[in-house]
User: Which sequence fits this backbone?
DNA sequence: TTGAAAGCGCTAACAA
DNA sequence: TTGTTAGCGCTTTCAA
């Protein structure tokens, strides 16, 4: 009941193992006659031959395994990216290994270490911080890796994200079009590229509309969570700053804001407008439904995987490091409406 | 710049590779002196030795990889199970490989094949159908595997799930306590154990309360989706059967029901009560918020992983196949209220 | 307690 | 075009 191996196939087909190997791998230079190839392939199938990945990996130093590192799969932002990547990779014969870090650097380091010891061929990294020694190390060691969703300050690795800036700009355009003039931004954490880009794009958009930009118009949330949204909104209300609209760093922050505002007697969309970011599942079912920026998450995952494969398969392709941004769209729903008094 | 290997450690420590191997693996019978062990371990750490998994796997036929098969990670039911399993496995030195099948048998077969060819040590399977040839094959071949969330008719493999029956019973108790007498069930697909168990428990609960059980009181949904919930509810309304409460097969079906009912002018909780199952993220934020059964998903993942490891590590442990059910709780929220006219 | 040696299954360089 | 051979890095049996 032992597994059938290459030598069994070779014997059954009446050739030597080396030849069988070449035939099965459709070796480009070690030319094998069409007839032999056919016979070997047919024999392998008949015997149910499955190559031993350990032996192959030991010999070739290639694992056909890609590691994907996310903060937390439980966050619905990530599963679609995972699916997109998975599809591309599995089609190319690779296996995806997923690991969560919970934004903990020690844990992340350990995960990467473990994966590297398994001979992982490349990494898809969705956990990058703006200043990220870990990611920079990876870049220096020359391990094939692609950043997804979050970039680093040093653009050493290829990056696939979405057009955050435009997402924020259309949000602000939308609000200004509804007559809002006093708009605030509950920014995501500033140690992530997304938090920084969105905040920067927010300020820029106001200037484009020739609206004043006060420093206290951007409140930083310590994380992308509902709780952080509650805290920031509480601060905002306490500050006494007038506002009729909020651009939130993401949907969870928006939810925290809506809740806090409602508790203070201000309801969307009549008293205040709120726009989120990410378009998480079910935010369209809330009452009122959340106006938010939708991202092509699956496509981001797929593209990142393709770039990674290209990097792995012709490793001497030292072209310019790619920074790819995919388009976003604003889903206009119930939490945004005309500015009060218009 | 080549990776440091066992022989380097052995030389640096002044021992033979065999000894170094035994020292590093704290070999139970090949006894190594404490002093030697200390020296080898210290040297290995100093040189940054990382064992080559291919060589080890080739020699030992063990991969320390576990495959987890889910229908779709994008369904928020699964990520918490994945996290639970991941934590237990990674602590034990295993790596989790996740794959999605989209409920497609051919795809599932291919995924399992690929994972087996990689020498995967065991499987966590969340895709089981009530009649599932694929899973039965796995059981026969003797590959270590544990079913999670969904069971098969043939109880050949260990199973970890939740107490579906009690979940449904407390739901019915809750509704009956609110004065409801005409309760219907929008059952999940009957080719899954969850769909069957919940439907059966529903009928049982009615009998316990000495309520009549008509066949047309249980409507089968073709899948666990909102769309299927819409269709079933449409059929229900068309049938003209009177009802004041719905026990839905899961939250998505409940959402479809609420939507369809609202379109027909019947609103929860005043006109009709609706109870879901799973307690997905954000269903507590809807208006009205969804009354539903909450499951210990993370714990299910963790327990399944522990059982799998036990099966792998002492494979001669042919004890009775375990069927473990974890407890559930009813989250009473806004969609359930007193029966109309009470 | 440690050393020596074989071999897991495969691929690739070289020879024919 | 095919055969021969060596060896990837590790564990483990056997011998010392």
Assistant:
């Amino acid at each position: 009941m032992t597994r059938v191996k290459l030598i069994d196939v070779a014997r059954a087909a009446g050739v030597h193992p080396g030849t069988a190997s070449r035939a099965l791998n459709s070796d480009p230079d070690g030319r094998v006659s069409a007839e032999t190839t056919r016979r070997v392939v047919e024999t392998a199938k008949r015997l149910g031959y499955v190559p031993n990945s350990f032996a192959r990996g030991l010999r070739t130093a290639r694992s056909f395994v890609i590691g994907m590192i996310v903060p937390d799969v439980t966050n619905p932002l990530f599963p679609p990216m995972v699916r997109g990547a998975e599809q591309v990779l599995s089609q190319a014969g690779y296996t995806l290994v997923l690991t969560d870090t919970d934004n903990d650097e020690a844990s992340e380091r350990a995960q990467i270490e473990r994966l590297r010891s398994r001979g992982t061929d490349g990494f898809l990294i969705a956990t990058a911080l703006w200043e990220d020694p870990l990611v920079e190390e990876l870049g220096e060691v020359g391990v094939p890796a692609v950043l997804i969703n979050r970039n680093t300050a040093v653009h050493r690795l290829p990056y696939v994200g979405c057009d955050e800036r435009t997402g924020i700009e259309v949000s602000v355009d939308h609000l200004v079009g509804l007559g809002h003039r006093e708009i605030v931004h509950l920014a995501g954490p500033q140690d992530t590229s997304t938090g920084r880009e969105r905040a920067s794009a927010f300020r820029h958009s106001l200037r484009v509309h020739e609206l004043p930009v006060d420093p206290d118009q951007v409140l930083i949330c310590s994380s992308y969570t509902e709780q952080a949204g509650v805290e920031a909104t509480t601060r905002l209300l306490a500050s006494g700053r007038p506002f009729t609209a909020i651009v939130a760093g993401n949907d969870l922050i928006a939810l925290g804001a809506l809740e806090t505002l409602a508790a203070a007697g201000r309801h969307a969309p009549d008293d205040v407008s709120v726009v989120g970011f990410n378009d998480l599942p079910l935010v369209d079912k809330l009452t009122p439904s959340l106006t938010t920026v939708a991202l092509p998450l699956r496509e981001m995952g797929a593209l990142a995987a393709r770039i990674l494969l290209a990097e792995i398969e012709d490793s001497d392709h030292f072209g310019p490091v790619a920074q790819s941004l995919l388009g976003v769209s604003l889903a206009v729903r119930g939490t945004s409406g005309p500015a009060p008094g218009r």
Q: What stands out?
A: Residues 164-295 of chain B form a domain with the Rossmann fold fold (CATH 3.40.50.2300). Residues 31 and 193 of chain B are 50 Å apart (CA to CA). Chain B has three domains: 6-55, 65-162+297-326, 164-295. Residues 5-7, 17-18, 21-22, 25, 27, 30, 51-52, 54-60 of chain B lie near DNA strand D (CB under 10 Å from a C1').
